[in-house]
Amino acid sequence: MAAGNFGDVIKHMILLELVDVLTPKTKSGGNFNYFETHGSKMSHQVKRSSSSGVVRLCNLYHSGHPILQANLNSNKYLNFIHQYFTQAPASIDYFSSWYLVNAFLTTKEITPRIDVCEINRDTYLDTIKAINYKFPTIHYSNTEGYSLLKTYLSKGLRPSLVLIDPFYSGSDKEVQVSVSEVNHIVEVLDFYRIPFLVWYPVYSKKLKFNFINANNHIEVDNNTNNAASHMNSTGMIFSNNISHHVLGIRNDILFLDHLGLGWKVK
Ligand SMILES: C[S@@+](CC[C@H](N)C(=O)[O-])C[C@H]1O[C@@H](n2cnc3c(N)ncnc32)[C@H](O)[C@@H]1O
């Protein structure tokens, strides 16, 4: 999946809105332990010439779109990302989910612990170089995500939130494997009552998650003809113990329907 595309934008927007409601402001700050099973790099350069979701938002920002302007401060994701829209004319530094969560929590004066797993050795080495001891709250490891998560749980560690964000690409069989791994880890997380989010794309057919129901997910349609790789819809499933936030977060992102991008929150 190309960084900064429609699916990434929706995923990151829902993620930051959720992290915000899970971390109410207290006088003493607080802690938040975030665990990501499938990490990827710290950031990717997204070409301004692409038709990705973030570039489309960037263009609206520069044209002064009134609805985007009206949500720039209140929407946690836009509030963070828009500062990068003016950086370089040719590209946008597009940050990964775990970097966004770390940066966002830091602005809330919360001390996070961010655990990130990345199985690919080259991605890991590039990222560790980029992190370069600058982010002591980020623990980035070259490990398989589900195994490390299970190890953590077996040691008594209890993350405040887990993001499960695998690839669902390849042959039908590979996609099936990915979905069944998600179905399995969700059983483990439910057993320990750990709050989690599962991101998924919708291409021609829906993926079969055992735990999806009418009330625990947000899906957004992408009726765009010019997208480089067309993703019909994308969604985020919330664990049952945080699904009471679905309605509020859905309301918070309803403005997406009015940006003229062909996006529709379902
Ligand atoms: C979809 S990307 C993650 C994007 C990131 N979560 C974000 O939103 O910015 C998936 C990443 O997970 C890595 N990966 C794939 N399988 C993995 C596994 N079993 N454990 C850990 N990392 C894995 C891939 O190498 C890739 O970099």
UniProtKB/TrEMBL annotation:
InterPro entries: RlmJ (IPR007473), SAM-dependent_MTases_sf (IPR029063). Gene3D superfamilies: Vaccinia Virus protein VP39 (3.40.50.150). It comes from the Bacteria. This is 23S rRNA (Adenine(2030)-N(6))-methyltransferase RlmJ. It comes from Paenibacillus dokdonensis. The lineage of its organism: Bacteria, Bacillati, Bacillota, Bacilli, Bacillales. The gene is rlmJ.
